[in-house]
Every structure is written in structure tokens, then in C-alpha cells.
Amino acid sequence: MNYLQEWQQSCVDEQLIRLNVTGLAGESPSEHLLYADTLPRRNDGRVSNAILDRYNHVEAGGWWCSGIDLLTGELDLWGCFKPDSPRIHPQKGKIIKYEHPPQATTGLFALRVPLSLWERIAERAGIAIAEAQIDPEQPDLGFWQWLMNHPQVPLCITEGAKKAGALLSAGYAAIALPGVHNGYRTPKDETGKRIGHSHLIAPLKKLAQPQREIYIAFDQDSKPKAVESVNSAIKRLGYLFQKADCKVKIITWDNQFGKGVDDFIAEKGQEFFTEAYQTALPFDIWKAQGLSQLTYPADLEVHARYLPNLEIAENAQLVGIKSAKGTGKTQFIQTLVAQALAKHQPVLVIGHRVRLVEELCLRFGLPYITEVREHPLGQVLGYGLCIDSLHPNSQAKFNPEQWSESLVIIDEVEQVLWHTLNSDTCRHQRVSILKSLKSLLQNVLGGGGRVVVADADLSDISLDYLMALSGIPLNPFIIQNQWKPQKKEAWTVYHYPENDPKRLVKNLVKHIKEGGKPFVCLSAQKISSSWGTLNLESYLKNQFPDTKILRIDAESLAEPSHPAYGCMANLDQVLAHYDVVLASPSIETGVSIDLKDHFTSVWCIAQGIQTATSVCQALGRIRANIPRHIWVAGYSFNQVGNGSTSIASLLTSGHRLTELNIRLLQKSDLENLDDLDTGFQAESLLCWAKMAVRVNASMLHYRDSVLALLQQDNHHLELKIPKAHLKTVTENQVSLAAQNQLTDAIQEAREQNYQAECQAIALSPKLSDQKYQKLKKRLVKNVQERRTLRKHELKQRYGIEITPELVVLDDQGWYQKLRLHYFLTVGRHYLADRDTKFAKNLIEQGHGSLFLPDFNGSQLGAIIGTMEILGIPVLLADPRRELCPQDDDLLALAQIAIQNRADIKTVVGIGIAHNASPITIIRRFLDLVGYDLQVLKSKKIGKKQVRIYQIIVPSDGREAVFQQWLIRDRALPGSSEGWFDEYCLKLKSSGQKHKSDNDPYRQLSLDLA
What we know:
Layout: H1 3-9, H2 14-20, E1 21-24, H3 28-33, H4 49-54, E2 62-65, E3 80-83, H5 115-124, H6 143-149, E4 155-159, H7 161-169, E5 174-177, E6 184-185, E7 199-200, H8 202-207, E8 213-216, H9 224-243, E9 247-250, H10 261-268, H11 270-278, E10 281-282, H12 283-290, E11 300-302, E12 318-322, H13 329-342, E13 347-351, H14 354-364, E14 382-386, E15 407-411, H15 413-422, H16 430-446, E16 450-455, H17 460-470, E17 477-481, E18 492-496, H18 502-513, E19 518-522, H19 533-543, E20 549-552, H20 554-558, H21 571-575, E21 580-583, E22 601-606, H22 612-619, E23 628-632, H23 647-667, H24 682-700, H25 702-712, E24 716-719, H26 729-762, H27 769-777, H28 783-798, H29 804-811, H30 814-824, H31 831-845, H32 852-858, H33 861-869, H34 872-877, H35 888-899, H36 901-907, H37 918-928, E25 932-941, E26 944-952, H38 958-970, H39 979-990, H40 1002-1008
Parallel strand pairs: 4-5, 4-8, 8-9, 11-17, 12-16, 12-17, 13-14, 13-15, 15-16, 18-23, 18-24, 19-21, 19-22, 20-21, 22-23
Antiparallel strand pairs: 1-2, 2-3, 6-7, 9-10, 25-26
Helix pairs in contact: 7-10, 10-11, 12-24, 16-17, 17-24, 18-26, 19-26, 22-25, 23-24, 23-32, 24-25, 26-28, 26-29, 33-40, 35-37
């Protein structure tokens, strides 16, 4: 085929082809290829006969392509040749489609760009081309220097010259690598051992200017090995570009429309590529989605709207079911349970939320654990329980050895395992729970039982983890339903781009006024949340007094007098009686609402509390295909560990923090640390890290993550942009006033509800410790009992009179701030005792084993030590001091903080920019203890006007709390009566950090300073 036709079939501009591609035959191909000085040559300088023989096939002709050398700006000597008669690789037996100059440094394809395309690329980036930059003789030679001068122009990176040509022709700046791994180099010694860090090749470094957007568009392969290789290259290349402060995105498309980007453009057209480009995934989200993949081959693969009856192999021990939301996974499992019960095989159902497990048990005909004693067959049939109770000390008195012949069901397995590894409710018994889970899997999978796990988002992570816990080499039996919503089944999802959900709520109100019946998913219940279930219920009831509104959240489900109480057992029947339903995350998973022709829409406010997957789960609870309206926060403050999106970084930082905490405890004379099992269940720690990285990546780009998951499921997204350009100024003003009025009304409802709740907590009756323990264990608690518990816990926490104002402060995180402030100053002497006590409790509960994330989260010593090294206590001791950013001690503080910012992120949990000012850093640390800075005045230093600051000391009554804490801590054995006065005197008189010879944190200071 003529090379011009071949390239044009890949949608490459003809002028670009003629600038970069040449037809060659005879000796010309060899002259272009065989130029490297390192090639073996004869005495006359001619390349050796062996090399000539290897390349004699090129004489038959083909095409040659080369571009610009980005390092010199001149035409590149390096390029590639596509022979008409390709040779066969002698070892691999595969056709070698492209020949590159042997033993020459591999380059890249920066093609010459004709002026027409240059202008199109510039126009897309919103830049006008200056005439002075263009050489009238050879205008195509200046493009790449122009690109280097304009980092605001995005750059696409692909593999193969034709693909770069297709992208350039479509109006996108693009370079091509000869292979996916050719964009970076990894230093190795002569044995092939890695001896240094990978780095971008020199030409890419020139294009990797800070803040440039880099779009990677490699082939969408289907072969597992090819996919693994491409993903590995994207991870390395993306990381290196991120390290250069570039913004990296990954372009993906359905490979049924073409493997390469040129095939995709040729098949679907440039507008479809533009859509893929605009929806490209940020690098961190792409990595997180990679951790969500299921790569185990399917034993049974179906493409069905609902899972049909399928025969599972008799010898299948671990069965994994992956099928989209609303495709009948629970119904399929119900059949498996019925078959097991018919054979008198016990069934154990494990979940992560009590109400959801109760609902599953009801469907399966099994008792929940609390009903076992009353059930006629007791434990003979089996039962369901929350994984929080999967240990011998729970009410279940769980014994994993009793279940070796049973069928174990874990529905929504991804969330169940994450709850097991990271939830607060499992923390105190986490080691026991993990030991029981491991023993259960070993007994069931090693005996005659079977484990069935199911999830719409089932991934390798969960399967790998369960198999690692079992310790048994086995292949999981995978049932995969490849069905995805097609056009008629896909939801239409309207998403709101604003920074708050005011406009969504305004449209929700309008929808109700027009007779709509919405199901509303919310991410919070608390009265302190403006957009939570309680406050939105108050607002809507005020707006629509005659409308039937049902609130479903943890409180209403547990309150016997509330209409939502017990509704999980017959949800469809209950909901049919209501016009508006407000649901918290209490029903985001494991619930199917199949009510037909009732609800007219689904609405969602996702504030960044749930994971992105949970948001999508919540949207799918209503099975009917009705419009969805969503507002999602742009990012979330929730993070796991140090917030890293690298598994290695998360684990390494965690291990270092563990070592530091143990060193501090050893200096505090905590006994038996040498026998401490800090390597407990490495498989659990690895699974925690993988899932944590997945969560951290989605939280960094929260809105993008949710939208990407919806797109992945083929749903149709529509941006709900206010049509301001169609309105008059007056109409816009009226619209804005209406939104402000709505916000004021919701805030008023929140304030009234919140003050009433705080007052009710403060006025609740007192509890004895015995009654508190009894009430705390009760599964179902009414509103008053919850308030009474809260009051008792506040009294235990602060030791002062409980007032409504104290409840507000506690909701605002007052305790965490006071605790740090106390141990940083007046309670410093008791810090070691405090950390020792928490460590002992965890060690005792784990029988000598520690789950490291829980242990690190329980310790304060490293945080306090870090703040002392930076001199924060000295600043707190002299709040009247005028702080100048150019003071020597503040500059030194900033230098230490910036040099150790990675460790500070791990230990303290705050991020510090590499160019952060001393005042910014100080403000971040003061915020940890509830202090702030104010501008006092301006002062001229040299020729520069500098702001002078002063610390703002809060008047919140914390001294009374410290007094109670000191009384408590002084009563401990071995405490020093005169510590408070001595400490204050030292700080006030000398302004120096306290450095007692007995201080176990002194060595920490010396180590880090």
C-alpha cells in the first residue's frame, strides 16, 4: 500500500505526512538505519556483512519517518522504518513491523507540524501565534520551541509515529514514543541490577514544565500481559511527570473501536476522541481504578440483565461473583443458601452493618445472631452477624472451628473487608476479629465448606486477601456478569458543578412543588450538618407541611416510635406510603428498592464522607430507571494514613512511625516490647494499604472519581449548568436571592434543631458507670438513650459540667485540640504514661499482636515530639510576642519543617508546601491546638514591607478542663505533685523547651534536629 494512503487511513493530515514521511528503497533504508558508530564495521568503514545480511530485507522498500530533535531544534537523525517485507524475530518468531536504528540512542517522534495545524492547536489552547516566532521559510520547525515556551498547552503522549500524526491532525499537541517504556531510563549495572532511580529521557524533560497537562494515550489492549506491560509503563511515566509538577491524565476508550488512538479516531471520528480527552482520568484516579480491577479469568461469564441460575463446580471452594448493581446478586445467593439448607449445611452470613445483615437473614430464612437463642433450631442452620462480632468475646462468642463444613456468605465483600480493616467500631477488637477471620477461612476452605463473596466492584484485592488468609493454594471460581446498562437502561445523571449544593436543593424543592416524588441520598445524619437528613427534613416539612416525608438514618431506624423503625424488613411496602424519602448512608449498600411507578427521581448530596464507590451504591438503591441529580464535593478532607496514593509509601511511612513509637515506649519502660508482634498478619496490612491507596486517590479527586465510576457503568452524564446567559440581569438576581433565601432557611432550621439537641444532651439524666456499660452494649437505643450516653461520654472526656456550649465545642473537634495542647504544655509529664496505657490495652486485646494502623493512631508521642522540635511550645508560652517572618528562629523552624515535610505529613497529618512561609507553617501547627494568628501591624525591613503577627489565645475555658485532667493524672501512681508549677515557671522564665534528663522524648529531638 502507498504510505500516503496508509497514513491517511489513520486520519493524518496530508501536509503533515509529506513533511515527516518518506518512501525509501534500495540502499537508502540502510543509510537511514545503520549510522551508529558502535555498529561492527569492516576495515574500510563499511558496516559488517552480518549486519547487512540482517537488514537486507529493507532493500525491498518501505517508508521512513523522523521529526525534530528537541534538544537541538534541528531535523532528527533518528527515526523508524516500516519495511514492505518485514523480517521475523529469530527468538520470538514474531514479525518485526518497525525497524529502528540499531545501537543508536532511542529517540521520540516530535513530528514537524504544518502552520495550519499549529494554529489549530494554539486556538484550542486559547493562544494567538506571534508572527515573530514563525520562520517564513520553514514554519514547521518552530512548533516545538513554541510548545516549550507555552506550558499552558497540554501535551499528548502516545506510542508510534502514526498515532502522534493522528492526534496532531485532530488539533492536539502530541509526541510519540517508539515503545511504551521508552519515555524513561532506569540506571542498571552490567549485570542488569538497578542502581539508581528512573528518570525521564532528556527530550521529555524539556517538555515537562511545571503545571503542564500531560495526557497519556497508549493502546487499549485486551491481552492480559500486554495490559500489564502498558499499565506498568503508564505508572512509571505518570509518576515521573507528576514528580516534575505536571498534571497527568490518562485517556481511555473502548477497544472495540480500535486498539490504537489512530484506529479509534478513524473508527469513531475526532469528536469521539475529544469526548475521551475531556473525560480523561487524573493519574491518581486511574491508578485507583487499576486497584479495582478483577483480572482472574471467569469460569462462568454471562451478559445478562439479571443473573440466571448457574451451576457452580462441585469442587469450587472460593466463589467470587462480580455483577453490576441491581442485577440480582442477592437473589442468586439466596438460591445457594436454600440449596445448602436443604442439605442441612450450616450457613454463616457476614456483613458490616447490622440492619443490612438482618435484612439478608430475613431473605435467606436465617436468624440474626441476637435471635439465635429464640430460634427453634438455634445454631444448627447457621445465622448472620456483623463482622464486628466475629471474635470470641462478642455476644456471638464466635468459634471459627465450628464452621468447617459450612457455607460462608460475604455480600458487598469489598466494603465488608474495608470496614474490618479500618473502621472505628472494629478498632478495639481488630486483632481478634482478624484472627477469627483467618481461622474461619482456613477451616472452611481447608475443610468441606465453601466461601461465596459477591460485589459489583469485586477486585483482585479482596480475592488475593482471602486466599492469603486461608494459606491454601487454590484458584477462585469466578462468575462474571459483563452486562452494563445500555442506552435504554442507563441512567441520565445531572451533575451540579458548584462548590455547594444550594442550586440542587432549590431544584429539588421545585420538583416537589410540581408533584415529583424524590428519593434523596445524603451523606450525613447529624444535626450539625446543614445538608444532613435531620435538617433537610425540618426544612422540607416546613415548606411542605402536607407532604409525607420519611427520614431513614441510624437514629430513625433504631427509634421504636419512629415510622422508619423496622422498615428494612418490608422497605418497598413502607416507602409506597411516602412522597419524599431522605436516606443516610445507613442504606447505601445491600438494599434493593424495587418499588415501581412511585419515585420520579433520585437526588444525592455527597459531601466527601463516603467513598466514591459508596456514593454510586447509594444512587443504585432505587432500581427504577429514573433521572438522577447529584452534587458531589470537588475533593474530600478524609484520608487514610498519611494520605499517600502509593502503597509502598503508605507502608514504609507506617513502619517508620511504628518504629519511632516503639522507641518512645521503650524509653517509658513499657515491658515485654521485645516479644511484641508488630508483623501481625502482613497480608491484612497489605490489603489495608491497597484499599487505603484506592480511597485516598478517590478522595483527592472526589467529584471526578464519582463521575468516572458512573461513566464506567455506561450512565449518561449531563452537566447541570445554570443558563445564566439566557436570563436577564434581573432574573439572575432573583435566582441568586432565592438560593440565598433557601440557604438562610436551612441554616435557621439547622440552628434551631442543633441548639435544641445540644440542650437536650446537657439536660439528660446522669448515668452510673455500671448503667453506662449496660446501655452501651444494647443494640437498639432510642433518642433519649443516645443523648444520655453522649452526656456520660462528654463527662468522662472533659470532667467539667456538661453545657450546650460544650456539646457544640466537642462537635467542632475541641477534644482533639485540647488533648494536644495539654500534652504539649501542662500535661507533658504524663504523656508517656498516656501512650503506655493505650499501647498496653491494644497489646492485651491482641494477645501480644498489634495491627499497625491502629497502634500508630493511638500514640501521641511522635506528634508532640515533632511540635517540640519545631519550638511550638515556646511560641505558646509567649503569646504576646510579635512574630516577624524574618526572625531567625522562625526561619529555622520553617527550614526544619520543609526539610522534614514528608515525615511531618506521616506523623502529624498536615501537608507543608516546599515553599511554605514560616507564618503559614506556624499557623498550620497552631490550628492543631485551636490557636490562630492575627496581623498586628506592618513594618519596613530594608526595602520590603513586612507584616508582623501575634498569636490569638482562645477564650474557650480550656483551663478548667486542664485542671480536671491534671487532677486525674496526678492521682496516677508515680506522678509528680509539683510538675504543673515547675513546668510553667521554666517556660515563662527561660523561653526554652523543657529538656529533662528523664524525658523520653529528648533522644527523639536529638535524632530529628
